[in-house]
Structures are given as C-alpha cells and as structure tokens.
Amino acid sequence: MPTHRELARDHGIALATATRVYTELAEAGLVVGEPGRGTFVREQFGYDGVEPQRVAHGNRVADLAFNQPLDPGQADDLRDRLRELAATGDIETLLVQHPPGGRSTDRAVVATHLLDAGIDVAPENVLLTGGAQHGLDTVLRALARPGDVIAVDELTYPGIKLIADVQGIELAAVRHTDRGMSLGSLEKLCRERSVKAVYTMPTLHNPLGSVMGADDRSRMAAVARRYDTFLIEDATYAFLAPDAPAPLYAVAPERTVYVASLSKNLATGLRFGFLVAPTAHRHRLVRTLKASSWGTPPIIAALAVAWLRSGAITRWTHQRRIDARSRQHVAARVFSGLDYRAHPAAYFGWLRLPSGIRAVQMERTLAAQGILVSTADEFSVRPHPPAALRISLSGTPTLATLERVLETIRTELPP
C-alpha cells in the first residue's frame, strides 16, 4: 500500500485522515502494518472470523494455533463420571438452575483448590463462570464502562482484545519487558490518563511466557493503589509454574479480581472457570452473571467439582507440567539458533521471524502443509505488530508428531 503521505497526496486528503483510514483498515483485518516495511493488504483466505474455515480437519497435520492439552485416559474418566452422576440419588438437582456464581458447596471446593495457588479466600468471594473468557467478560461488564481505559501489555491475550472491542473499551498498550509489564511505563500511563484497570498475566504471560517477580508484583500493587485502579489477574496458565511468586490477589486483595479456569489442566470443551472477587465488587459481579448466563451449567459444575474432590485435577495438573516441559524441550532444540522465546514450563513459544519474512506469508505457507499457527497481529495492541508467530505446543497428539511439525516450520526459515 502507499505510505500515509502518498495516500493523502494522491486523494487530496489530510495526513490525519489518511492515518485514520489505515487504522480502520487494520482494525477490520484488511491490512497489516509492518515496522520499517510499510502497510500490506492481508490475504483473506479464511483465517479470520467467528468460525474460521482454515484447513479441513482431515487435512490438518497439527493445530499449533490453539492449546488443547488432553491426556489419553480422560475420555474414559469422563464416561465413568457421567455414569456416577446418572447413578446418584440427587440427579434432579442437575435440572435445577443454580444461583448466579454457583452453589456455596461448589464454591467451597474451588476455594480449597485455590489454596494450592496461594490464595486463601472465603467461598463467598469465589464465583463460578463458564470459563476464563466468560470471567473476563463479566469483570469488564461489571466494573468498566464504554470509553474506559484498560492498561494491557503491548502483546496480550486476544480474548481481552475481543471483549474490549465489543464493549467499546479502550486498551492502552504498555511496554513489556523480560520481567513482565514495564511498571515505569504503566505509572507514566496512569499519570497521563485515567486508567480504570490493569489487565495482566503475571505468571506465564501469553504469548511471551514471562513471570513477574515478587518485588514487581508489590510495585504493581502500589501503582494501582496510588492511582486508585483495579487489577485483573489472568491466571489461565499459572498452574504450569507452581514455583512462581504469590498471585497479585494475595498482594492486593482489596483491588484485584483473579480470573482462572480448568480449561488447560482439565479440558477446553468443559467450560468451567472462576473469579475471586474483592468483597466490594462481589455484588456487582453477581448481578452481571445473573444478567448473562448465571454462571456454569449444573452438569459441568458437578463434573468439575467431582474431579476436584477426587484429586483427578491435581493428578492431571502434574501430568500437564511434565508434558509441557517435554514439549518445550523439543521446541528449544528444533528452534536452536532462531529468535525463539519461551518459558521452560509453557505450552507455547514466541518465534520472531528473520528479516524479510512476513508473518502472514508464513502462516499461509504452513497452512498449505496442514499446520496452523497464530501471527503476532492477533496479540498486538499496537498498530504495527512484529513479524512473529505464537507456536502452541499442545495441539498435536504426540511428542514425535510435534517434533516433525516443528522441523517442518524450521525448514521454511533461512538457516
């Protein structure tokens, strides 16, 4: 595409108007800006939309765009749990709508589970949701308004971008470092603008894999108190790093909403998540849950609680940690010599592409071979994303298959 100045000159419009045109085109997914190279038309080959038709399932070699870890024995365990539910004397309770946020007995089980995460909270401050995405949507609907500013990392979870777009909330990008969100940049933003909340992933940031240290967590809490903003802590992948510092909620419980789920250590299809809410915000969050879906379907809640009580979640969590480290070890070996960044316990990695290689071109080249990946523009809050891929490592069934797929990606890059 022409430069902003060329577009303005050729069409007789102001430079600011040309810039706004490119911004709207980028937001619509029609163009992508690449630093130092210009603006390019995105190839529209069915990789976007509500239900992307990427590659026919039978032609897929591997889906490295989405993490869906599963253990071979989980299907059999699901059958056993369903039989147990069918045989219980109170099965009629599964046909009755539970309270918004879940029953007190179920919330108590989750509160006990959270002790392993470093959170000691009363069951009434735990609210059950239909997954972490539902939890994030609930938090922003309850505690923010259209036009509010939410501080996020310059590369962040795509789900928060989608929620903000739908709700008319502005995401303000904050520089990210190897230690996590830059607290100097965050404080500068808070001085200059009215920041309603900070969305952060302090333990196993997605997609960069950083883990924020204890001192920085305390500093972030201090910044939030100084500017009277609340914190949204996304702990979706935190279970993979059990040695990480205490959650932000433990540091600033009066202003932190902790969001997590069992999607990655149980199954992505069983939508079971939970919020840990400060008492001051609990009523508003419950009302928002009541206005949307009321929370988690009773059958899903019963299955999840049964797995928590039996210790199955603890067992699968341990297996996930071993599996993630094994897969990450393979990725580090295959991508040795490339600009590959990942936490050793993460189920994903960040691969910066060599100069001259465009991410969307690499995405299509790999798709033609049945390999799905995510490009940086899905995660970028800024208008010019880096040329990089987010590689999910749990989308293939075996380590051997994963190694072959990663070797295929490696062969598409310069030596």
Explain the layout of strands and helices.
Blueprint: H1 4-11, H2 15-27, E1 31-34, E2 38-41, E3 62-63, H3 74-87, H4 104-114, E4 126-129, H5 132-143, E5 149-153, H6 158-167, E6 170-174, E7 176-177, E8 180-181, H7 183-192, E9 195-200, H8 214-226, E10 230-234, H9 248-251, E11 256-261, E12 273-276, H10 279-291, H11 298-310, H12 312-334, E13 339-341, E14 348-352, H13 359-367, E15 371-372, E16 374-375, E17 388-392, H14 399-411
Parallel strand pairs: 3-15, 5-6, 5-9, 9-10, 10-11
Antiparallel strand pairs: 1-2, 4-12, 7-8, 11-12, 13-14, 14-17, 16-17
Helix pairs in contact: 1-2, 3-11, 4-11, 5-6, 5-10, 7-8, 12-14
Briefly summarize what is shown.
The chain is 40% helix and 16% strand.
What does this structure look like?
There is one protein chain. The chain contains 14 helices and 17 strands. It is 40% helix and 16% strand. About 3% of the residues have low confidence. The protein folds into three domains: 42 residues, Arc Repressor Mutant, subunit A; 109 residues, Aspartate Aminotransferase, domain 1 (Alpha-Beta Complex); 222 residues, Type I PLP-dependent aspartate aminotransferase-like (Major domain) (Aspartate Aminotransferase, domain 2, 3-Layer(aba) Sandwich), CATH 3.40.640.10. By secondary structure, it is α/β, with parallel strands linked by helices. A hairpin with a 6-residue loop joins strand 13 and strand 14. InterPro entries: Aminotransferase_I/II_large, HTH_trans_reg/aminotransferase, PyrdxlP-dep_Trfase, PyrdxlP-dep_Trfase_major, PyrdxlP-dep_Trfase_small, Tscrpt_reg_HTH_GntR, WH-like_DNA-bd_sf, WH_DNA-bd_sf. This is Transcriptional regulator, GntR family protein. Pfam families: Aminotran_1_2. It comes from Nocardiopsis ansamitocini. Keywords: DNA-binding, Pyridoxal phosphate, Transcription, Transcription regulation.
